[in-house]
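Handover notes (outgoing to incoming on-call)

Open items:
1. Probable nicotinate-nucleotide adenylyltransferase: sequence verified, structure written out, both below. Nothing else pending on this one.
2. Nothing else urgent.
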Amino acid sequence: MAKIGIYGSSFDPVTNVHLWTASTIQHRCRLDKVIFLPCSNKRKDKQMQTADQHRWNMLQLAIQDNDKFTADNYEMKQNAWNISTYETLKYFKKKFINDTIYFIMGADLLIDIGKGKWGNSELLVKENKFIVMARDGIDMLKAISSSPILRNNDDGETFHLIDKGLAMEISSSYIREEFSLGGEPRYLLPEACYQYIKDHGLYQTEE
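Probable nicotinate-nucleotide adenylyltransferase structure tokens:
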């Protein structure tokens, strides 16, 4: 039985921190595979800056040399009303029926789930397992204990908390801003992705 991590993000663009984070989690949690899950342009809660196809192409370039990494465009193919983490994890648990699925997320998202801000928040926690990355200023144990949704659906193995060494913060938005303002973020993302952005004129401010 394999252990598989689902790592969802906009990846707009994928950065070296995304890759480093996934690699660190894969190593520490002894995951057999990390699946990068780019979200769709159709999502109502996120505003994408780049077409799905460009983000997908850059992601493929970024992970091509790591046999522990793969990508899945499941959410990109869904209708807007059917996109939710709860439904996505149901899909992956059915696809990998004999394996253990973990949803990888930051502690800030843990708080949002605990407040019931995600669709089917209670069932999401009750039926799934999570790897939660530390975020500055967030006490993850307190977040769990102070939320009825989180604490009452935690069987002791629901949350794998990673509290040290994942504090690097180089965001995709920072890289987009650098490109748009004529900056040079070359070494903040994979070289192949940097060249792809240059070749396709992505993130440039329109005159």
